[in-house]
């Protein structure tokens, strides 16, 4: 599994070095200064996805019944709650940390190792926290928007955060078997890719640029997560709808 970490670090560093070599002085209004590189990497990722990941995900989706795929998703969501809990504490969200620690306990025990999400039925909802968000809460700027090789959309800040999250994730440290770790990461990837098939079909009916849609959706999602669903309005939004309009 050490090789996995090295590969992830190499991919992250390669993308960051490309960004540094391609542009400088990123601003909030210049969210895609690396567009030519990003579009090329998007095309590469899309080609690999269509050749490898999507066909495997289709077989996975057809062979396994929906309750099984849901349980697989719940299992990995429960492992991810460990990452969420660590970032709750780093962001000093102590009440949320108490809720997420309870989620882990209830889903791991009554939910049979996380196969069933019993915690959500107990008014303990799933939260989304990661180290990229933590860095944002700490005041670190997002930097350039980057499409990572194989890993998809990111920013400089989220790329560094991704490395921290992989280190915290129980898949990376709960077992000494490289075979088990690779198998779990692979199953998680295929299950997540299969869950996107329905959304992909819906988007295919719309006449949109998939690259632009992915970039916009990712940046808006990350901004919303960092501000817990209530991000401050941009200058353009204030011009269109002032906070205190003249009556």
Amount of beta strand: under 5%
Low-confidence stretches: 21-29
Neighbour order of strands in the largest sheet: 1-2
Helix share of residues? 55-70%
Structural class: mainly alpha
Radius of gyration: 19 Å
Mean pLDDT, to the nearest integer, reads 82
Shape: globular
Count every beta strand, where a strand is a DSSP E run of 2 or more residues.
2
- Element pattern in H and E: HHHHHEEHHHHHH
Helix tally?
A: 11
Sheet with the most strands?
Answer: 2 strands, antiparallel
Distance between the termini: 63 Å
Could you say how many structural domains there are in total?
Answer: 1
Q: Can I get a quick summary?
A:
By secondary structure, the chain is mainly alpha-helical. The chain is 66% helix and 3% strand.
Task: Please outline the helices and strands.
Blueprint (H helix, E strand, L loop, with lengths): L1 H21 L12 H29 L2 H25 L3 H16 L21 H7 L7 E4 L3 E4 H13 L1 H4 L4 H18 L1 H8 L5 H17 L8 H6 L7
Antiparallel strand pairs: 1-2
Helix pairs in contact: 1-6, 2-8, 3-4, 3-8, 5-6
What keywords describe this structure?
two-stranded antiparallel ribbon, about 5% strand, single chain, mainly alpha, 11 helices, globular, about 250 residues
